[in-house]
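[job 4471] stage=fold_predict status=RUNNING
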Amino acid sequence: MGGMTGLTIGVSGLKSSQNAINTTAHNLANVNTKGYVRQQIVFSDTSYINLGVGGVYTNQSGMGVSVQEVRRVRDILLDKAYRQEVSRQAFYEKQYLATEEIQELFGEFNNVTFANFMEDFRSAMQEVAKEPQGMTQRSAMIQSAANFINEAVKIYDGLKDYQDLLNEQVVNMVNRINQLGDTIYALNKKISSVEAADMEAANDFRDQRDNALDELSSIINIQYDEDINGVVTVKAEGVEFISEINVKHMSVEALHTPEDSGLLTPVWPHLRDKEVFNLNVTISTTKENDLGALKGVLLARGDKIADYTDIPNSDDYKDGANSIAFKRAQAAGLNPIATDYMGGKDSAAYKRDLEVYDKQLSQSTVRTVMAELDQLVNEMVTKFNDILCPNKEVAADITGTDENGNAVTITKGSFILDTENAGYGYSENSDVQGTELFSRKDVERYTKVTGNDGTIYYVYNEKNAFGSESLYTLSNLKINEDMLHDDTLLPLSNSEGGEFRARAEALVDAWNDASLKLTPNHNNQKSFMDYYTELVDQVANAGSLYENMINHQETLTNEIDGGRQGICGVSSDEELTNLIKFHAAYNAASRYITVVDQMMEHLVTRL
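[job 4471] inference complete, writing structure tokens
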């Protein structure tokens, strides 16, 4: 019996050493495999034979050694910390990339910036102010105006294209989230199947699942738990995503915006298409809602194509039903209350719109810049057009007929060309008034109406040929092509055909008029050039802030990942040392079995 027991002990040592060698070889084979976690073999005693019981001890004889488990060396607390910080890093990386793209569009990384086009436009106006009748100066000013508006439209269209690009990223990220969910769910089943008999651990499958969780956490904020059966359940943005029985896929649907922008938002189909993210909450690290690349993309992109009307101006909320904001709300199909539009910045409507601005637009890098650029161009275009073609308000209703012979009424409060203060064209166009420098698409600035008393009126058109409100926005702007081809239409002459220097000088003075605020929360008003400088500084400062956050996150994640790798990473030197150790143990067990075998053979043959 003793000899057979000796053989059992030797065989157990042989098998255990062989398993240890195999485990070490597996570690060495995966030393460069991304996400592989070092496996460690744990030995334990096998059963004992009780030989007797003393007063204070039990006399036992061991039966050898066995492999208790082959475990992964991993720290789950470091995993959770790493995934959260990687998620935050990915969020700010998307925000930072947006600021870089914007600066690229404005030419801030090149020698020719948008500011150069503005300067050229201003210089051309200054030359015209010196000689309003000069054809060369007029032609140069009109051409510089065309270059200015074309560049502004190019930047604006570039921002819309970037929104489309971010939109594609949203779709790709949602698809990837669903793929990772399916992968984790499939690995859950494999792990449960392998470990059901409690014979071995599905370590390689667990490594694959952890890699999938690492990637998933970088895209979206997740919370996860592992049950006693080895199944990991995952919540994404607080909603159940992966359960023990299924994966609840995410989807996308179009945002409902008036301009039908085609922008998409992630939704949960199983929750009646509830939106995955609430983007109307202030983003901050303390709230721990600055997590995930997908959220970063959505915030950078914004939820609509913006224009200057998205920035509330308190001056538009003063006159009740006659206020610009009230009419704009009506045009949008809303049912505004006139009393809400009284009192400017103290009006109820302004406070509501300001809250929307703070919660939605101001948090979106691209949408904010779109609105601010459009606000700059709108103010410039409106001022220059109003100088060349000044309007005045009609004091009482006027009846007459339009150019097609239709009876019309010019209602009180409408705007008409102020012919007494407007300039004229030059030379053969010396009787032409009301030619604007910048035009809206599908609409003339004025409709000519002959009053019943024979007076000619030029009625300002607020709507286009399709009956919709027509604004001087970058999506609706162009240079006046008639003036581009005939610079004598530029109304800088007086009624006698002489130069109208006051109008030309007013164009130059407009550049120094501090009338613009970058945001409703700014106190100081800026001139055109100062406003643009503040705009690009705002983007640069945001980019610098995001870059600092990224650098901080990189340092933090590298430290945490370094700690992870120090625990779970494979060291070839350490594994080679283990290989030598376990090989020596294997040889020792082999020799032990040989000695026991020889001893038993000797006893059997001699006795």
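[job 4471] summary: Residues 135-195 form the longest helix (61 residues).
[job 4471] exit 0
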